[in-house]
Fold:
Amino acid sequence: MVVIVFTNRLRADADLQAYEQHGNEMYALAQQNPGFVSINEYSSEDGEHVTIVQFTTLEALEQWHTQPDHMRMQQMGRERFYESYTIQVCNTVRQYAFDAKEGRRVIQ
Structure:
């Protein structure tokens, strides 16, 4: 499993409605990418946003990274929405899960 941690801060003048619309479009596009697993977004009170995206392989991530519509949206994000961002690409070393009925177990 490959995990992408995308941390960002929006510009003060960012059009939040347009940002949300483009985010929804990117989510729909990402779901069509082979190897896409999930996406979750979180925001803190100080204005930092974190998006966690999962792909099955580095190859699936590379396909997404170079997808033409995604590349256009990245450029738009830099021009219109983001004050700053950091992207971390991480390989899962081990994964655990807990379910009250099943207890803790190693998945990978």
